[in-house]
From TrEMBL:
It comes from the Bacteria. It comes from Lipingzhangella halophila. GO terms for biological process: L-arginine biosynthetic process. N(2)-acetyl-L-ornithine binds at residues 145, 284. HAMAP family: ArgD_aminotrans_3 (MF_01107). The modification N6-(pyridoxal phosphate)lysine is found at residue 256. This is Acetylornithine aminotransferase. Its cofactor is pyridoxal 5'-phosphate. Pathway: Amino-acid biosynthesis; L-arginine biosynthesis; N(2)-acetyl-L-ornithine from L-glutamate: step 4/4. The lineage of its organism: Bacteria, Bacillati, Actinomycetota, Actinomycetes, Streptosporangiales. Binds 1 pyridoxal phosphate per subunit. It is found in: Cytoplasm.
Length: 406
């Protein structure tokens, strides 16, 4: 079965919402993946910051296989140890990064990022009571495609065709503390922010912004919900991006990198948000599935045992400095932290760069028209980074020669 044949079958059988993906992948090993025509790629995207340990990592394979063989599913009607251990591990990691103590911390498991944010949305409404229903969110932010998460998403083009959502949302500019201060009052249940806007093109806020969000939420009684679905679990060189700022949210949402490729999301509540749900308030048949929890435990264990936080920080800096040092005229900036970088282009040529990079054997992503996203497995090596940065000037030259595609 060639890529062309698979794409034709995809087009006939799958809904058109994704368009036709340009590459059909068959298998992977480490940081390499192969397409249906036998071409090999260095994977610098990790399935959108998901495959933290790369492909076929022995710890993940063993954890998943052993758990699938022993007990693949329980539903939430029964306790199993994997979910308890994973929740305890996440609580420990949140606490370890908090200088001043956290109070109570508890976890709800979902199956995706959107569902983790849906849980957060219900949690903050439950904690706030009926008088506080407004949510403040950010322009350009992304929180998911389900109706609640989409209502909070600051991208009118993907949101507005599906409204109204029955949710009162105020949008403010990302990183603008003064605008946030004006928008948040005692009618607000919560503020939803990303520490760095991922889908908007790896856009950080100024240092100190999260501390201001914390202060505004404390002053008004709104919950501070931090969406770390893309930034969390080692991606930035910290367990969670907020730990670099020394700021604690009230609610933390996680997903992408947590399961290393298995679907799992988590909504972590701190302080009074740890226990704001009463029995019966929320649920998920698959959430906290034993196989997904086993995968996530393998991811956390491997990040810790192999020192992958320090590696992400160091290799991410190498990646950024090599690209910057090449001084290519198409590149105006390399943003982000750890192994999560946005290459800002001087022209809307990101889609062309993505295509040319694939032709040279590298998977990267045009996250916006003029930003290329690089988010490789946390297991990537120095040699593999240099293989990419060595090839990049030629890729950019080719893309620059043909700038804006139709
Ligand atoms: C990907 C993402 C989501 C949505 O996660 P899904 O698993 O696709 O539902 C939400 N928030 C952020 C910041 C994300 O990057």
């Amino acid at each position: 079965m060639t890529s062309r044949e698979l794409q034709a079958r995809f087009d006939a059988a799958l809904m058109p919402n994704y368009g036709t993906p340009p590459i059909a992948l068959t298998h992977g090993e480490g940081r390499r993946v192969w397409d249906a025509d036998g071409r090999r790629y260095l994977d610098l995207l990790a399935g959108i910051a998901v495959s933290s340990l790369g492909h076929g990592h022995p710890a993940l394979v063993k954890a998943v296989a052993d758990q699938a063989a022993s007990l693949a599913h329980t539903s939430n009607l029964y306790v199993h140890e994997r979910a308890v251990r994973l929740a305890e591990r996440l609580i420990g990691l949140v606490r370890a990064g908090a200088a001043g103590g956290t109070g109570d911390v508890r976890v709800f498991f979902a199956n995706s990022g959107s569902e983790a944010n849906e849980a957060a949305l219900k949690l903050v409404k439950r904690a706030a009571g009926a008088g506080r229903r407004t949510i403040v969110s950010t322009d350009g932010g992304f929180h998911g495609r389900t109706s609640g998460a989409l209502a909070l998403t600051g991208k009118p083009a993907i949101r507005d065709p599906f409204g109204p959502f029955g949710l009162d949302v105020r949008f403010v500019a990302h990183g603008d503390a003064a605008a946030l201060r004006d928008a948040v009052d005692d009618s607000c249940a919560a503020v939803f922010v990303e520490p760095v806007q991922g889908e908007a093109g790896i856009l950080p806020a100024d240092p100190g912004y999260l501390a201001e969000v914390r202060e505004i939420c404390d002053a008004t009684g709104a919950a501070f919900v931090l969406d770390e679905i893309q930034s969390g679990v080692g991606r930035t060189g910290h367990w969670f991006a907020h730990q670099a700022d020394g700021v604690l949210p009230d609610v933390l949402t996680l997903a992408k990198g947590l399961g290393g490729g298995l679907p799992i999301g988590a909504c972590v509540g701190l302080g009074r948000y740890a226990t704001a749900f009463a029995k019966g308030d929320h649920g998920s048949t698959f959430g906290g599935n034993p196989v997904a929890c086993a995968a996530a435990l393998a991811v956390l264990d491997t990040i810790e045992a192999d020192g992958l936080l320090a590696a992400a920080a160091e290799l991410g800096d190498l990646l950024a400095s090599e690209i910057t040092a090449a001084g290519h005229p198409l590149v105006t900036e390399v943003r982000g932290a750890g192994l999560w970088r946005g290459i800002q282009l001087s022209a809307p040529a990101a889609a062309t760069v993505q295509t040319r990079a694939a032709e040279h054997g590298f998977l990267v992503n045009a996250v916006t028209a003029d930003v290329v996203r690089v988010a490789p497995p946390l297991t990537i090596t120095r040699e593999e980074i240099l293989e990419f940065t060595g090839a990049l000037p030629r890729i950019l030259d080719r893309a620059a020669g043909e700038e804006t595609p139709a």
